[in-house]
Amino acid sequence: MAGDQLQVLNALDIAKTQLYHFTAIVIAGMGFFTDAYDLFSISIVTKLLGRLYYHVEGDAKPGTLPPNVAAAVNGVALCGTLAGQLFFGWLGDKMGRKRVYGLTLMLMVGCSVASGLSFGQSANGVMATLCFFRFWLGFGIGGDYPLSATIMSEYANKKTRGAFIAAVFAMQGFGILAAGILGIIVSAGFKRHYPAPSYEQDPIASTVHQADYIWRIILMFGALPAALTYYWRMKMPETARYTALVAKNAKQAATDMGRVLNIDIEAEQEKVENLTTNPANTFGLFSREFMRRHGLHLLGTSSTWLLLDVAFYSQNLFQKDIFSAIGWIPKAKTMSAIEEVYRISRAQTLIALCGTVPGYWFTVALIDVIGRFTIQIMGFFFMTVFMIALAVPYNHWTQRENRIGFIFMYGLTFFFANFGPNATTFVVPAEIFPARLRSTCHGISAAAGKAGAIVGAFGFLYASQNKDKALAEKGYPAGIGVRNSLFVLVATNFLGLLLTFLVPEPKGKSLEELSGENKEEEMEMPPVRVMLASD
Predict the structure, then answer these.
(1) DSSP alpha helices (H): ranges in 229-356?
(2) Could you tell me the CA-to-CA distances from 151 to 101, 155, 236, 442 in Å, in that order?
(3) What is the sign, positive or negative, of the torsion defined by CA atoms of 463, 466, 467, 472?
(4) What DSSP element (H or E) covers 455?
(5) Which whole number is the average pLDDT over 23-43?
(6) Dist. CA 532–CA 535, nearest whole Å
(7) Do 60 and 455 touch, CB atoms closer than 8 A?
(8) What local confidence, expressed as pLDDT, does residue 231 receive?
(9) Alpha-carbon distance 481 to 463, whole Å?
(10) What is the DSSP string of 423-434?
(11) Which of 354, 351, 356, 345 is nearest to 179 (CA)?
């Protein structure tokens, strides 16, 4: 294959791991740190928002967000993310990865700050403003998915490409962890300076007016890591694969990568022209040729990501409700508003520390050893098993003396989500499609995932309510209960396992070999040259 490969691309494929690889991981990874922080920090403060803005005088329970408001606050950023993945994924193939990369980051910084400054003359006005800014925050976050994955895959060598892309995505775990830790720090600080009684002791005094600053500080903090990496994102050169295979500028690709790798690389303009004008490398996304070559691949990457996110986001966004249901977080009326934020933050931090973060880094360590396919199959399998183990004896887990066991089992589902399909569904779409469609196809796959996240977030909010309407949260209809919701997730995970068989294994292959961008040339070459190239 090296004989057919452009020299600049072959140099990238065989390059030893060096400083620029780690620089790219940090620059792209900090974007994902911010993405995860912004998406998951909202789950820490939604209970507080209910107490602050929807308190009902004389009610036996603290105020909660009405169902439609809760669904909007939790889900609007996911809707924006879906739109951003499609738009910026397409734009990354049209304008270049680097040019679009800075736009997404500035949108994330501006909207993180604006979310914390949400205003309004009424409670619904504040929530509407918050939802507006969180939609556009999600739009910027959406662009980071296809661009970060594509840039890292096109910079990496083929031996450790999976680990590099997975390392970028693994920063998501630290973002989730950071949201929990900051929630603990901020709420502990406010609790110390503004002590308050529980709601059942004094409904009004239990929510001090200074608590309004807590959710604003937590949401605004997401702007900081994104702003710190903007300069370095703008310093990164465009990827050689985009410059050579899409922009068709062999000289610029050779110059950029020669500077990065500290070697002299020949600019093969004639070879670039031959490659890019080959009919095998000119078909579009909606062509029959694309469907023949990559249709099942796109179906596989999109469907598995969708099913994974149904399970992942329904657990992550609403884990506070599960913790409350098993008694790990006390009843809301027995706590003050700030105490509730502290307890929810502590629970999220524990799950991130024990299940989420380790799972990501197990994937980084092993993805280029055992392969993407094996990790994804294994992850879906164990998620199915542990969901069954949670759902079947659910009443056992709700007993106070068994709550630690529940947390352990629940943490294992997160571990195998992250040492499994949550990482691999991000990695594979950045490897198996042609350069001119790579960002677009990754954006489509990621958008399918966010559609699943929306189903998980909105659907689980209603489905997990108690079957007895009198015991459901205020404003919600009766649901199917947490136990039956877990059974739905069991079926979701098992279907994801089956659809994984549509996705090829990219381990150890060059991007051009995977995408078939050299395929037609190989068929036309004389037999002797094929043998030499293979040797």
Answers:
(1) 230-235, 240-241, 250-261, 269-277, 288-317, 319-325, 337-351
(2) 10, 6, 10, 12
(3) negative
(4) none
(5) 89
(6) 5
(7) no
(8) 86
(9) 6
(10) HHHHHGGGTSS-
(11) 345
The HSE-up count of residue 365 (CA atoms within 13 Å, CB side) is 8
Half-sphere CA count of 467, side-chain side, radius 13 A? 6
Residue type for position 13:
D
Residue 200 three-state SS: coil
Start-to-end CA span in the chain (Å)? 9
Tokens matching residue 32: 């994902």
How is residue 283 annotated by DSSP? -
3-state secondary structure labels for all residues of 330-370? CCHHHCCHHHHHHHHHHHHHHHHHHHHHHHHHHHHHHHHHH
H helix count then E strand count, the chain: 27, 0
Task: For residue 158, give both structure tokens.
Answer: 């083929």
Between vectors from CA 33 to CA 28 and to CA 39, what angle results, nearest 5°?
125
Instruction: Of 438, 420, 367, 376, give the one whose Cα is nearest residue 146.
Output: 438
Residue 409 phi/psi, 5-degree rounding, is -65, -40
Tens of pLDDT, residues 362-410 = 999 999 999 999 999 999 999 999 989 988 888 887 777 777 777 778 7
- Mean pLDDT, rounded, for 304-315: 88
- Nearest partner of 411 among 401, 403, 400, 421, judged by Cα: 403
pLDDT value at residue 529: 36
| Total residues found in the chain within this entry | 535
CB-based contact 317:74 (threshold 8 Å): yes
Asked whether residue 205 carries a pLDDT value surpassing 60, the answer given is yes
Burial class from Cβ neighbours inside 10 Å (0-12, 13-18, 19+) for residue 501 reads: exposed
CA dist 247 and 243 (Å) reads: 5
pLDDT for 319: 62
3-state class of 187 per DSSP? helix
Q: Supply the pTM of this predicted model.
A: 0.88
Say if residues 218 and 41 touch (Cβ distance below 8 Å). yes
